[in-house]
């Protein structure tokens, strides 16, 4: 679990790449410059950790491309102390970014193997989510709602209603919507029953899967 000068140097370069691709939010760039992404991947991928690419993690899943993580984090407009829900914990990298931004994070993962692995791993790096949950993200997390923000890190074939319903007024849902490719979509809850929707181009995610049970 080392973070060497080499890693730090590569990470600084990655942050420059993210800037050149249009990421402007300084708090997001700062957060990502602190997180040792190489430790979130299997060791054989160490050298690839600071390329702007998605990579396989356990259970046929991927750690999202750094640009995608930065883009989604920027859209979420995280403020210190925000209560956030993440769907798709995966490697925990996005979770770590949200924690670095000062949020209280709840995160749901449906793959048991990943859930167990990441639940052990994140605290080792000092990243303490409010709760990591093994379960189905389509339902959101009613007992902790409402949230300032909800971020979905898998491709959703449609927008699950519970996620919209679990937003505070003024809250933001960032969700990639689509089957083969996904359109990055932002919903802002303006009033109880009024949502503003904005789209931000195509991305590619592993699918948000329906509950197995
Ligand atoms: N945020 C992660 C991205 C992981 S890929 C990271 O930074 O590494 C998306 C994750 O969503 C996978 O781990 C997958 O198992 C999970 N997932 C898919 N469908 C889900 C569902 N219905 N509920 C919760 N998690 C889900």
UniProtKB/TrEMBL annotation:
Cited InterPro entries: PCMT, SAM-dependent_MTases_sf
Documented EC number(s): 2.1.1.77
Reactions catalysed, as given in the entry: [protein]-L-isoaspartate + S-adenosyl-L-methionine = [protein]-L-isoaspartate alpha-methyl ester + S-adenosyl-L-homocysteine
GO terms of molecular function: protein-L-isoaspartate (D-aspartate) O-methyltransferase activity
Catalytic site positions: 64
Location of this chain's protein in the cell: Cytoplasm
Record has Mitochondrion as a keyword: no
Keywords: Cytoplasm, Methyltransferase, S-adenosyl-L-methionine, Transferase
Pfam families given in the database record: PCMT
Entry-linked PROSITE patterns: PCMT
Gene Ontology terms: biological process: methylation
Highest taxon, organism lineage: Bacteria
Primary location: cytoplasm
Keyword Cytoplasm: yes
Family stated for the protein in its record: Belongs to the methyltransferase superfamily. L-isoaspartyl/D-aspartyl protein methyltransferase family.
Role this protein plays: Catalyzes the methyl esterification of L-isoaspartyl residues in peptides and proteins that result from spontaneous decomposition of normal L-aspartyl and L-asparaginyl residues. It plays a role in the repair and/or degradation of damaged proteins.
Name by which UniProt lists this protein: Protein-L-isoaspartate O-methyltransferase
Source organism per UniProt: Microcosmobacter mediterraneus
């Amino acid at each position: 679990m080392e973070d060497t000068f080499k890693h730090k140097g590569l990470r600084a370069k990655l942050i420059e790449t993210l800037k050149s691709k249009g990421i402007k939010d300084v708090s997001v760039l700062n957060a990502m410059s602190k997180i040792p992404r190489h430790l979130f991947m299997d060791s054989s991928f160490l050298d690839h950790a600071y390329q702007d690419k998605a990579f396989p993690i356990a259970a046929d899943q991927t750690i999202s491309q750094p640009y995608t993580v930065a883009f989604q984090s920027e859209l979420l407009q995280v403020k210190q102390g925000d209560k956030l829900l993440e769907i798709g914990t995966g490697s925990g990298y996005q979770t770590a970014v949200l924690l670095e931004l000062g949020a209280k994070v709840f995160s749901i993962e449906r793959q048991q193997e990943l859930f167990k692995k990441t639940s052990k791993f994140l605290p080792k790096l000092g990243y303490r989510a409010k709760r990591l949950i093994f379960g189905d993200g389509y339902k959101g997390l009613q007992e902790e709602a409402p949230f300032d923000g909800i971020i979905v890190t898998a491709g959703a074939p449609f927008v699950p209603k519970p996620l919209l319903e679990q937003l505070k007024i003024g809250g933001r849902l960032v969700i990639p919507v689509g089957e083969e490719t996904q359109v990055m979509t932002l919903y802002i809850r303006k009033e109880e029953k009024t949502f503003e929707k904005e789209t931000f181009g195509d991305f590619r995610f592993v699918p948000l899967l329906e509950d197995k049970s």
